[in-house]
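tokens incoming
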């Protein structure tokens, strides 16, 4: 049974409390919170202050995905805001191992995100040090994009790398996850599904979360 992490990027920001109440009452496991700086990705979302509000609104895991340059400058702020998992992008970290040490030293779980063009083989030297890999299955920055099919091969390759080393590392898929492709994603070896529009634009978001959990 996969972990379902609805992306609050697709929530209704005029009535966030209602969406948080819905998620809290649903089978959703995590809140997925996308932080964008307008530099690493061509969009701006929200920062630590908003994460703090989400933290107060739920007891569920706050899975914070930093799509930002120089994430080391802000890791402590996100820890103070209430992040349980902090994911940084491979492409944004000149000293990736140092970033991982910083995140773990602050008491959070460490995730590494890879853009669609970045091969999973680049993680072989840090895989034992992290808790999660987030594979971007769309180009980061905007919700509502179509899933990139090549991602399935990346999931399989990464799953083999993790299993060969006997590690417990979550594989999270972020972008274009739908009820139609979720089974193929899980079958390939992923176990965390980030779903934005699929959940929040559904006629019955609670039911959609339940269906994803049953994959």
């Amino acid at each position: 049974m996969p972990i379902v992490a609805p992306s609050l990027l697709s929530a209704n920001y005029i009535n966030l409390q209602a969406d948080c109440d819905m998620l809290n009452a649903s089978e959703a496991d995590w809140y997925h919170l996308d932080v964008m700086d307008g530099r690493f990705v061509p969009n701006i979302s929200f920062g630590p202050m908003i994460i703090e509000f989400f933290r107060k609104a739920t007891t569920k895991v706050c899975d914070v995905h930093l799509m930002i340059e120089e994430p080391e400058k802000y890791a402590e702020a996100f820890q103070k805001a209430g992040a349980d998992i902090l994911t940084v992008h491979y492409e944004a970290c000149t000293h990736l191992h140092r970033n991982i040490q910083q995140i773990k030293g602050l008491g959070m779980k460490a995730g590494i995100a890879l853009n669609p063009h970045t091969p999973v083989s680049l993680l072989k030297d840090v895989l034992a040090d992290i808790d999660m890999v987030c594979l971007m299955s769309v180009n980061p920055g905007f919700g509502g994009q179509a899933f990139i099919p090549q991602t399935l091969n990346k999931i399989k390759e990464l799953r083999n790398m993790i299993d060969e080393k006997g590690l417990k590392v979550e594989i999270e898929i972020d972008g274009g996850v739908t009820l139609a492709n979720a089974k193929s994603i899980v079958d390939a070896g992923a176990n965390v599904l980030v779903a934005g529009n699929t959940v929040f634009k559904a006629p019955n978001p609670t039911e959609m979360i339940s269906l994803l959990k049953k994959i």
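note: Helices lie at 16-25, 48-57, 75-81, 96-105, 151-164, 182-188, 197-200, 205-213.
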